[in-house]
Design a protein that fits this description.
Layout (H helix, E strand, L loop, with lengths): L6 E6 L13 E6 L2 E7 L3 H5 L10 E4 L10 H12 L4 E5 L1 H10 L7 E5 L5 E4 L2 E7 L7 E7 L2 E5 L18 E5 L16 H10 L4 E5 L7 H9 L5 E4 L5 E3 L1
Parallel strand pairs: 3-4, 4-5, 5-6, 10-11, 11-12, 12-13
Antiparallel strand pairs: 1-2, 1-14, 2-3, 7-8, 8-9, 9-10
Helix pairs in contact: 4-5
Length: about 250
């Protein structure tokens, strides 16, 4: 039985690039047995250290190779090699992300133990069970489902509307979905989700709580929440760095 409910802290939630004073995508997933950094977008390392030390990380999960989701990793590499002096941190990321990381971190193994993940991969990280599903995006990208006891959440990463979220199962406590733009841009064929599409996704998996993230800078938070509420009847939150959610 888990006494303390697992929680997620938003380290950054801007889409594509950081808004003023913000940071790109990143979350800290904490449970009694693990501290996992999910996506390491630029600006998230400083926010991570408000909650834990780098040496307290159990693992890092990187959903894809686009810079706004992983480019803090080379900075962590420098920190571990020259300052923190902790052991290797396990990293779970796509093949494409690993190739880019090796270009920027000459001896990757000095700081990280890389594990390639892809569609259908499963891993147990501490007391957290992770599984991944490839989404509808421009590069290989994996969405995540995490379970800790009877608690669960889904993180969409980046995806277009043709990804089937049900590949990760149903009935989750929390769904964190990108909500890059409003419904008026859906016909442009961009491989990202609108607020309306994010709400449809949460409805499909019977989520209790939908968190809208990855809003492009300049997007109206109220309009995103309003459009999502037209489709999804559960609790809706628009992410802000520093928010914490139990799941």
């Amino acid at each position: 039985m888990i006494v303390n409910p697992p929680k997620i802290t938003v380290l950054g939630c801007s889409g594509s690039y950081a808004k003023k004073g913000g940071a790109c995508t990143g979350f800290l997933v904490q449970s009694p047995g693990a501290n996992v950094w999910l996506d390491a977008g630029p600006g998230t390392l400083g926010n991570l250290q408000k909650h834990i030390e780098i040496s307290d990380l159990t693992a890092i999960v990187l959903t894809h190779e686009h810079a706004d989701h992983w480019l803090e990793l080379p900075v962590v590499y420098n920190a571990i090699r020259h300052y923190v002096m902790c052991g290797q941190i396990p990293v779970y990321g796509t093949q494409g992300t690993m190739k880019l990381a090796k270009q920027m971190c000459p001896v990757l193994e000095e700081a990280f133990n890389w594990n390639v993940i892809k569609d259908g991969s499963r891993e147990v990280i501490g007391d957290q069970s992770w599984r991944w599903s490839q989404t509808d995006h421009y590069v290989e990208t994996v969405a995540s489902r995490v379970e800790v006891g009877e608690s669960s959440f889904v993180f969409t990463a980046d995806t277009g509307p043709n990804w089937d979220v049900n590949t990760l199962g149903e009935s989750v406590s929390l769904a964190i979905s990108e909500s890059t733009f409003l419904a008026c841009k859906e016909d442009e064929g961009i491989l990202h989700l609108s607020a309306r599409q994010a709400a449809e996704l949460a409805k499909k998996i019977k989520a209790d709580h939908l968190v809208l993230s990855h809003l492009a800078p300049g997007e109206d938070r109220v309009q995103h929440e309003n459009q999502a509420s037209e489709v999804f009847d559960g609790r809706i939150t628009v992410a802000t760095a520093g928010d914490q959610y139990s799941f």
